[in-house]
Design a protein that fits this description.
The chain is α/β, with parallel strands linked by helices. Helices cover about 35% and strands about 20% of the residues. It has helices at about 15-30, 50-55, 65-70, 70-75, 95-105, 140-155, 165-185, 200-205, 225, 230-235; strands at about 5-10, 35-40, 60, 80-85, 110-115, 130, 155-160, 190-195, 210-215, 245-250. It has a 10-stranded mixed sheet, sandwiched between helices. α1 links the parallel β1 (about 5-10) and β2. The protein is globular. The chain starts with 5 loop residues before the first strand and ends in an 11-residue tail after the last strand.
Amino acid sequence: MSKDQFVIACVESAENAAIVLPWARHFAECLNHKGLMMLHVSKDDADDSWLKALDVPYVSMRGSWSTAIEGIPTAFNGILAVTAVNTAARRSSLTHPKTLLHEFKNCKTAYLAVGGHFPAGKAVWPQASLLTMTHRREGKETLVWASYLARFLGSHITIAHPDYRDADLRMRWRNNMRFVDKMFVPFGINYTNATAFGTDLKNLEALQPDLLIARTTDARERDLFDLLLPLPEYRLLSHPSHTPILFLNPRDDLYILCD
C-alpha cells in the first residue's frame, strides 16, 4: 500500500540512524501507519552507501540541513521529523543542541528530539505526555499533537499550569482550558490537570513525563533581557534526564495529520 504522509528520520551516519530509526518507526506505525523515510544531508560528496544497507526509503542531499528541513512537508510529504540530540556532539553536528535548534528554526512540522535509544519492550510509549498551559495565547497545533499522542499512541496527557492568584490571568487560563475541552471531549480524551510551574523546564523536572510537548520561543516575543539568556528550548535539550521533546515552532500554517 502506498503512503501519502511520512515520518522523516533525520540521520547523519549509520550509528546515528541506529538511534533515530526505532523512534521514527514507532511513530510511523502508531500514527495510523504512516510511511517512514530517512533524510540525509551533507556539505560534500561524502560516502552515503550505508543508507541503502538500512533498507528504508531515503533521500540523500548535498546542501544545508535547514533548507532540507524547511521542505519536509512539501517536498517529502512529512508530518513529523525525528532527530537525535547529543550535548557532547561537535558543534557542526545536527545533534548538537544549538545546531539542532538553528537548523530546525523554520521547520513547519513537529519535530521530535531524542537523547537515547528507544525504550524497547514497552507496549505503550509514551505512557505519559506533558504540556504546559498558561494564560498566554496557546498554539492549536500543540493540542492537536497532544490529541494524536492520546488517540494513536495511547498516551495519558497531563496539562500543567501555574497556580494563578491574579483573577485576570486565571480567567485567561480558564478560557484556554475551555478550548482544550473543545479539542479533547469529542475524541473522549481524558487528561490530568497539574498545578505546577509556569515553565516547561520546571514542569519537566517536577512531573518527569515520558515525553514533553513544547513550543519554541517566538522571536517576536523576546526582549533585550531574554537575548542575554539561553533559549528555554536549549535548556530542555540539555537537561540530564534526556526526556524526548516534541517541539512545535510558532506558525500560522499547520502541517498535521489528516486522520
